[in-house]
Amino acid sequence: MQNIRDQMPDACLLYDTAELFKMFGDSTRIQILSALMICEMSVGDLADLLGMTQSAVSHQLRLLKGGKLVEARRQGKQMIYSLADDHVKTIIGQGLEHVQE
Amino acid sequence: MQNIRDQMPDACLLYDTAELFKMFGDSTRIQILSALMICEMSVGDLADLLGMTQSAVSHQLRLLKGGKLVEARRQGKQMIYSLADDHVKTIIGQGLEHVQE
DNA sequence: TTTTCATTTGAATAATTGTTCATATGAGAT
DNA sequence: ATCTCATATGAACAATTATTCAAATGAAAA
Question: How far is A26 from A35, CA to CA, in rounded Å?
Answer without folding.
Answer: 14
